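Lab notes, practical 5.
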Amino acid sequence: MGEPLKTLEVVSVNISEEKGTVKVPVSEIELYDQGVKGDAHAGSWHRQVSLLARESIAQAEAAAGEKFPDGTFAENITTAGIEIHKTNILDRFENDTVALEVTQIGKKCHAKCAIGRKVGNCIMPLEGIFARVTGAGVLKPGDRLEYHPKIFRSKIITLSDRASAGTYEDQSGPEIEKECTAWAEKNRLNVRFDSAIIPDDREVFENELKASLSGQYDMLFTTGSTGIGARDIAPETIAGFLEKEIPGIMEMIRSKYGAEKPNAFLSRSICGTTGKTLVFALPGSPKAVREYLEEIRKVLFHMILMVHGINAH
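Output from the prediction step:
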């Protein structure tokens, strides 16, 4: 059995008609596809609803030596029970009525806003979170929301005639998992991996791609079969499945390593997107995997935001 679901309690629901001002507690709020009806922050963007934990407010009260009413820090929903600033993007809070998806942790502080002038040190930029509405309905004090952490599912496909036949131990596939796990831990993301080892056969690879790109994976990595040999078929096969190709990343990596070792220019690695799945075709050696992922990891978090429609510029 898995761990029991964590839940938070809705302590207060609050609205304001102007941005940058404290919000006023109300008896209930109506969530719709733009956020909170009647609230200044509603709109077609990723920060529709703001949440702040009563635990964070209590610490601010202790430091300031005064009480802060719910809504003081411009949060739409005052919560209790979970350190919500330790959640992460695409985590969900939901019950039978409403659903929210986390889109941002903290924000840039506007020191001259009404809240900053009123309380001096606003905790929203550090411990507040923002979400968008994925399930419309009414929310009121006393309601409870279940917390569902996002699990980023990743598939690793190794293309190798020898490894698939058992005459060679796959090393690049495990290297991808190792590097991506380290990146995920650094970014506090939950990631799970599935893997497959197949021969350099186009029909077999196409069938594996069809199954892997049906929507259940957030990231798909392939390794091997990116060269110019007769059996190297990964780039052209993957290209037929991509909706958007992202040439800049692989071009930059080839340029970086090709300047010192020209053989790097012979790699035909590509990347792109299919639906909300990020697809990366990497070379077939552990060293090349490390080099490619060193650069990919610099933009990977932002890529995830982009494919999920989160404009964090």
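Observations recorded by the TA: The CA atoms of residues 179 and 290 lie 7 Å apart. The chain has a mean pLDDT of 93.
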